[in-house]
Specification:
Layout: E1 2-8, E2 11-20, H1 25-35, E3 41-52, H2 54-70, E4 72-76, H3 80-89, H4 91-94
Parallel strand pairs: 2-3, 3-4
Antiparallel strand pairs: 1-2
């Protein structure tokens, strides 16, 4: 998985490419823990994300919990297969998806 970060002041966009699974979730978790300080707007761009596992869902949930305290989080450009996972797991009700 590739993680592309773009920070502009208090806004951070994270674009994910590939698979967010048990192997790659710790990598994203580390980015979230180290880069969210001072961020009030977090955007996940999932246009190039091909797969998400429960480990990936946990990382998104962790990011959502942090952003609930310090700003907002939006998930954008979700492919149909990923959206189906969000719907089945109830994440579609937890996350702000555009």
């Amino acid at each position: 998985m590739d993680i592309n970060k773009n920070r502009n002041g208090e806004a951070l966009e994270i674009a994910l490419t590939g698979r967010l699974d048990t192997t790659t979730a710790p990598q994203l978790d580390e980015v979230i823990k180290s880069d969210l300080d001072g961020v009030s707007s977090l955007v996940f761009n999932l246009a190039s994300l091909e797969y998400i596992s429960s480990a990936g869902l946990r990382v998104l949930l962790s990011a959502q919990k942090v952003m609930n305290k310090q700003g907002q989080m939006v998930v954008r450009n979700v492919k149909d297969d990923i959206m189906e996972v969000f719907d089945i797991t109830g994440f579609a009700d937890i996350l702000t998806i555009e």
